[in-house]
Amino acid sequence: MPIYNPVDAAALIAIHAAIAAAHHARYTNAEAIAAAKTDPLLLNYTQGARAHNNANQSIPHNTWTALALNSERYDTDTIHDNVTNNSRLTCKTAGVYSSTGCVYFDTGAISWRGIAIRLNGTTFIGAQLFWSGAVAGFYFSVATIYKLAVNDYIELLAYQTTGGAINSLTFHHMSPEFAMQRIG
Questions:
Q1: What is the CB neighbour count within 10 angstroms for residue 109?
Q2: How far apart are CA 81 and CA 145, in angstroms?
């Protein structure tokens, strides 16, 4: 039995597309809440956060590494803390969430590179992994929709196998960035 009827599924797809289209927009908490309260597709789903790191972060060889997120674009439900467990976005209102993450890797040797969204420190719920040439930087994004319970948390992880550490670079309002928004 499907979780949503076809009308609900179409609405969720439209919401996901709208979130992706607005992915690079920067909102204050008040602007995000106001936008959600006036958009008929997002009405009643104001819970969300978008966090980022304002400095490069070293990603060690052959280790899935949770990215630190020391700043916020918005947070409408105390989902993120800039200091304590700052790699986490923690669900405070149960529901279905759309989650997105973006990472820009520094130049490095030919290797595997990837990013993932991990649930509660153990379960991967979304991932991208590619064989990369020795290019001048490499940009990844990952997205998933997942039902979360109160106090479930998700993290954005980065991975690479260059043989040494390389950086995840801070790049405009695209890297590293991690968001979750309630959609149902």
A1: 13
A2: 22
76: Cβ contacts below 8 Å, ≥ 6 apart: 29, 32, 33, 36, 46, 47, 48, 49
- How much of the chain exceeds pLDDT 70, in percent? 76
Please report whether residue 47 resides in a domain. yes
Nearest to 168 by CA among 179, 178, 154: 178
Whole-angstrom Cα distance, residue 94 to residue 57?
31
Among residues 41, 52, 37, 50, which one has the least CA distance to residue 18? Answer: 41
Give the number of C-alpha atoms closer than 13 A to the C-alpha of residue 121, restricted to the C-beta side. 2
Is the separation of the CB atoms in 167 and 56 below 8 Å? yes
pLDDT band at 110 (very low <50, low <70, confident <90, very high): confident
| Number of folded domains that form the chain | 1
Q: 17-39, pLDDT tens digit by residue?
A: 555 444 445 566 677 666 666 66
Which tens digit of pLDDT belongs to each residue from 149-166? 999 999 999 999 999 999
> Which residues span the domain enclosing 143?
6-182
CATH of the domain at 56: 2.60.120.40
Task: Choose among 91, 47, 85: nearest CA to 69.
Answer: 85
Q: Which two tokens stand for residue 33?
A: 């809440």
